[in-house]
């Protein structure tokens, strides 16, 4: 065979700059492409042998990857079908045939779309090489070996080669800036990443073992892909322990999964895979990029957003589909019809599997629910299709550890938890132990209380309120028990207006200095209830809880916390405290009030006179008198407040009432808690 030189058959000469420049960020995929070609050549030979067209011995079909650091070469050798001179000219020299120009025009700005199309997989070698050689010998009888060489421009050399055995060697002369691919460890890392499930053995170097305290090379070939792809087998041929073993292989050291789904679809698209439900304890366990995407057992990526619905990216496992191209851009994935179908199918399969587990063994399903809950909640919040299915298998858990579907819980609370406006109130706790006193009060009224202590429950609650008809969620500590579910008949406060006024001011003074702002209100809760309880506004607390989950926070996250201290006007202790403050300070306060009364009367009279006039029409004397009255009233109000503040700050009982309420809500800590303990001892000793 005479030496032949020529130009590679592509009309656009910018093919090599495009490969080198636009694909540089993904340059490691060259090895995946070349190994895939070698596997394809090997599989084709096996097909020819099965059909009887190839009569020879297959022998050892291992693909060998050899690093020669001294020669700066990386060689991929296979014993597949090889190529004749004519085939080299057709498949190597004629890039994309007549479609090359149109292809380059379309994809030159989309680097990830180039490799793998129109036979360009081989040309990924030029991403890392100064020169690429091919030594090939076809399987066909009487074929002659071929040697092809190119230095990364349209010129090539084609001559008779030296290969004695069928197959192909791809010899890459690695460019200086890509010398990382001359490191044995780096090449093995890439082979392990991309090729560990390919159906043809791939060898790279020799196996290592520890001997006499150091690592030494053996004579045994280091086979990269020793594990079969479990997803390619029939589910009927597998046992649960096979799936568990495969999970351990994929994710060494991980806790055993809850369960798995084996995907096996051949119409209207081809999809196989195994998805595992990991144990998710909290939001920090929600690790994405644990689903590996393969195309015909060749690893593509573990960034599966756009292929797998967002909430399912927390699953672990593998997906393999030839209907998802090896190299695609994110925008391409989002618009591809097959990808959308695959995404919808995976959602359906996951929902169906959960429904199956619920239907076949509800008891076992409930035992797994605490691990499943975060995942299901995430899906219900973010995926409408999943929500529609999850309504049947999503569970509520109450503070007694009982489980209910959404429909079951609606029937359970029934009329008992409807308020006077006809809305059903779902009471819930986020901390069973810390909010026990509130839970107990609600249960004493015959109410049921849900336990909503999950990481996403504040978001889920908002979502459910938008879905469930006339249902509102209220945390048990957001109001007093009578106001959690407002009924027509509410108990009235019997304390006089003065008693309420004095009592409120005194207790506010006792509560002054706490880390959170405390507002004092007075309600009649019944003699059997606690003398004072802390409540937190449902809306503001929920917004702060949701803001705490946001990585950037928001307006509500920065707002200071505030509490309402509700004094139980029906309790003997509060009645006694109200009577005591009136006895101790009533005369002084009344004396001040008597001074304030005529000033207010005069102020009101003047305001009625001046309010009808324009500002410029008001006489200066009236302006001066209004200002003087306002200052006098403010001074007397301050004096009045000082009297009641003095009582509140000095009253052990007032402090004790405040601290007991805070303690019941787990809000008394540090120095405040120490003072409460000392005061309690002093009061007991009296």
Automatic annotation (TrEMBL):
InterPro entries: HATPase_C_sf (IPR036890), Heat_shock_protein_90_CS (IPR019805), Hsp90_fam (IPR001404), Hsp90_N (IPR020575), Ribosomal_Su5_D2-typ_SF (IPR020568). The keyword ATP-binding applies. One of its GO terms (molecular function) is ATP hydrolysis activity. The keyword Ion transport does not apply. ATP binds at residues 33, 37, 78, 83, 98-99, 168, 330. It comes from the Bacteria. Keywords: ATP-binding, Chaperone, Cytoplasm, Nucleotide-binding, Stress response. Belongs to the heat shock protein 90 family. This is Chaperone protein HtpG.
């Amino acid at each position: 065979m005479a030496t032949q030189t020529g130009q590679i058959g592509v009309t656009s000469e910018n093919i090599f700059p495009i490969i080198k420049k636009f694909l540089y960020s993904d340059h490691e995929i060259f090895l995946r492409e070349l190994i895939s070609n070698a596997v394809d050549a090997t599989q084709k030979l096996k097909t020819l042998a099965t059909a009887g067209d190839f009569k020879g011995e297959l022998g050892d079909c291992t693909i060998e990857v050899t690093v020669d650091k001294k020669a700066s070469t990386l060689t991929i050798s296979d014993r597949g079908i090889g190529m004749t001179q004519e085939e080299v000219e057709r498949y190597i020299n004629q890039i994309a045939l007549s479609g090359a120009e149109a292809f380059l025009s379309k994809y030159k700005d989309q680097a990830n779309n180039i490799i793998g199309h129109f036979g360009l997989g081989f040309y990924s070698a030029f991403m890392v090489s100064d020169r690429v050689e091919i030594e090939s010998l076809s399987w066909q009888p009487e074929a002659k070996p071929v040697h092809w060489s190119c230095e990364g421009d349209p010129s090539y050399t084609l001559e008779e080669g030296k290969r004695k055995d069928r197959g192909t060697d791809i010899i890459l002369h690695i460019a200086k800036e890509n010398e990382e691919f001359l490191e044995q460890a780096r090449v093995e890392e890439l082979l392990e990443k991309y090729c560990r499930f390919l159906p043809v053995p791939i060898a790279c170097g020799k196996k290592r073992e520890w001997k006499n305290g150091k690592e030494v090379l053996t004579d045994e070939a280091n086979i990269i892909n020793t594990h079969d792809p479990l997803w390619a087998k029939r589910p009927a041929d597998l046992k649960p322990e096979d799936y568990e073993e495969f999970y351990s292989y994929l994710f060494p050291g991980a806790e055993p999964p809850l369960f798995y789904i084996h995907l096996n679809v051949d119409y209207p698209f081809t999809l196989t895979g195994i998805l595992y439900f990991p144990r998710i304890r909290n939001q920090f366990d929600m690790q994405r990029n644990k689903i590996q995407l393969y195309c015909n057992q060749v690893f593509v990526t573990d960034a599966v957003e756009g292929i797998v619905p967002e909430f399912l990216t927390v699953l672990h496992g593998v997906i393999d589909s030839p209907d998802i191209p090896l190299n695609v851009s994110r925008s391409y994935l989002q618009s591809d019809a097959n990808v959308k179908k695959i995404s919808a199918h995976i959602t359906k399969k996951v929902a169906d599997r959960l429904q199956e587990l619920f239907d076949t063994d509800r008891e076992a399903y409930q035992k797994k629910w605490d691990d499943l809950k975060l995942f299901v909640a995430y899906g219900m919040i973010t995926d409408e299709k999943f929500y529609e299915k999850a309504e049947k298998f999503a569970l509520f858990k109450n503070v007694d550890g009982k489980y209910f579907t959404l429909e079951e819980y609606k029937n359970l609370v029934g009329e008992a938890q409807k308020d006077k406006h006809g809305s059903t109130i779902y009471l819930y706790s986020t901390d069973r132990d810390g909010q026990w006193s509130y839970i107990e009060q609600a249960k004493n009224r015959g109410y049921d209380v849900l336990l909503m202590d999950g990481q996403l429950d504040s978001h889920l609650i908002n979502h459910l309120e938008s879905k469930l008809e006339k249902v509102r969620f209220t945390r048990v500590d957001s109001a007093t028990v009578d106001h959690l579910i407002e009924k027509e008949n509410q108990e009235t406060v019997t304390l006089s207006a003065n008693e309420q006024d004095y009592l409120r001011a005194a207790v506010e003074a006792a509560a002054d200095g706490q880390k959170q702002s405390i507002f004092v209100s007075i309600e009649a809760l019944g003699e059997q209830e606690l003398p004072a309880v802390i409540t937190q506004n449902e809306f503001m607390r929920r917004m702060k809880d949701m803001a705490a989950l946001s990585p950037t926070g928001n307006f509500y996250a920065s707002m200071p916390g505030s509490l309402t201290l509700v004094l139980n006007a029906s309790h003997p202790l509060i009645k006694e405290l109200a009577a005591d403050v009136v006895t101790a300070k009533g005369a002084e306060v009344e004396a001040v009030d008597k001074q304030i009364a005529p000033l207010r009367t005069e102020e009101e009279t003047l305001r009625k006179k001046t309010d009808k006039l324009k500002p410029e029409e008001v006489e200066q004397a009236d302006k001066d008198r209004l200002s003087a009255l306002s200052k006098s009233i403010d001074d007397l109000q301050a004096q009045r407040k000082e009297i009641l503040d003095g009582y509140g700050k000095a009253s052990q009982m007032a402090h004790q009432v405040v601290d007991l309420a805070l303690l019941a809500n787990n809000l008394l800590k540090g120095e405040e808690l120490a003072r409460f303990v000392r005061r309690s001892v002093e009061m007991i000793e009296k």
